[in-house]
Amino acid sequence: MPPDNLKIVLIAPPHPSDSLCDAWRRAISSHFPDPTDCPFEVKECRLDDLDIKFDCIMSPANSFGIMDGGFDYYLSRAFKGPSGDKWTLTEHVQSYLRDIWHGYAPPGTCTIVPLPDAVFGPGRNKHDARSLAIVPTMRVPDFVAWDLDLSYNAMWSVLVELDRWNRVSVLGGLQRINTIVMTGLGTGTGGVDFDVCARQMVLAAKHFWSPVPDVVRWNEAHKRDNEIKTARAPSSQRGPPPPY
């Protein structure tokens, strides 16, 4: 069961046909049918139009932390600070990737990075946000739908890192992350089907908050493997998503 004080807000812009938000809603109704046990909230809007407060926002980044395209472009614009330099956020994120990943965060990993001081926290950005979750879905902008479990693995990494951050926060004086904003994982340039992404993200959350057995045998492993494989099936071909 998800913790009571964690909310995952999923955002994506409107789409002329079946949207990513529609796909998330279908997946949520399948895997979290009880609204009282559901950590997800879906908002069909662009980042510029999002009007809520949150602690952390995900960047579906590239491995080098270059934040000048897609959803990252709008993050760079939102958190550029008083300098007005569009590269402020990129350079800040890259400083952490150098320290933690030797400059290259492999696809599917998650790194939580505090926002730059000038835009950190209440009163310094309109969302009162304090951190970014850097989640590369590709090395460089490219088609990545060949990676059949990309959205599942990336979502799993986000949940692991959130859990680690919040456990450490109790001991280290960090502020908990209670609300994180996420968008699609690989659904832009990466070409991942909306339904595949949605099913994998929500299934990863369901698995993550299932009881962890002390001992795992192959029957349990194969059951989970089959569920993950089932989430791979694409729904239909769509045109490119609208800009964030």
Helical stretch count?
6
Radius of gyration: 17 Å
At the first level of CATH, the class is Alpha Beta
State the major sheet. Answer: 6 strands, mixed
Overall shape: globular
Number of domains: 1
CATH T-level fold name: Leucine Aminopeptidase, subunit E, domain 1
| Alpha-carbon distance between the two ends | 31 Å
Instruction: Supply the helix-strand structural class.
Output: alpha/beta
Task: Record the strand order, biggest sheet.
Answer: 2-1-6-3-5-4
Task: Please bin the fraction of helical residues.
Answer: 25-40%
Pick out the low-confidence regions. Answer: none
Portion of residues in beta strands equals 5-15%
DSSP summary, beta strand count: 6
Query: CATH architecture, please?
Result: 3-Layer(aba) Sandwich
Order of helices and strands: EHEEHHEEHEHH
CATH superfamily placement: Leucine Aminopeptidase, subunit E, domain 1
Mean of all residue-level pLDDT scores: 94
